[in-house]
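Key result, reporting period 2: structure in, sequence out.
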């Protein structure tokens, strides 16, 4: 009957020292296990959070890349509509020509395409036959040709005024 009296809050029985030491060790072991479980759970949660952030970051980068690619496609399409689109090879060719032009200008060579003042001062060449130039105003007569001779002009009827 001593056991029920102790449970009801009466007098506590004194536990032997070796049993008290065992209980203390068990309590310490239980506390350590709980602490270890808590640390493992925290580590697991931290790892899951890092993985989630990494996946979100990867998804964001992929979306950004897709957005950038779409923007580039739209830009190329716009340039094609305007007729200004150039391939990589065409851009390199243009840059190479530009460098050559700059080198020529640095060397002192006048480039007519860029020198607008020289283009304005040049007169356009007029090609005309100097022998026939004076006869346009005068009436061509058949009589002097007949006197000279038939020579190369055998058909005189074509020369009639």
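The corresponding designed sequence is given below.
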């Amino acid at each position: 009957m001593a056991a029920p009296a102790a449970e009801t809050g009466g007098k506590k029985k004194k536990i032997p020292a070796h049993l008290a030491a065992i209980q203390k060790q068990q309590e310490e072991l239980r506390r350590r296990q709980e602490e270890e479980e808590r640390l493992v759970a925290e580590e697991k949660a931290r790892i899951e959070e890092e993985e989630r952030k990494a996946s979100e970051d990867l998804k964001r980068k992929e979306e950004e890349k897709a957005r950038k690619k779409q923007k580039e496609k739209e830009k190329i399409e716009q340039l094609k509509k305007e007729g200004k689109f150039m391939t990589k090879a065409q851009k390199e060719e243009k840059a190479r020509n530009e460098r050559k032009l700059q080198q020529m200008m640095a060397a002192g060579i006048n480039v007519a395409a860029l020198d607008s003042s020289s283009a304005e001062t040049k007169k356009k060449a007029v090609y005309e036959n100097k022998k026939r130039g004076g006869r346009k105003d005068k009436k061509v007569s058949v009589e002097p040709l007949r006197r000279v001779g038939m020579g190369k002009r055998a058909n005189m009827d074509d020369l009639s005024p």
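The radius of gyration is 53 Å. The chain is about 65% helix and 0% strand. This case is discussed further under Risks and Mitigation.
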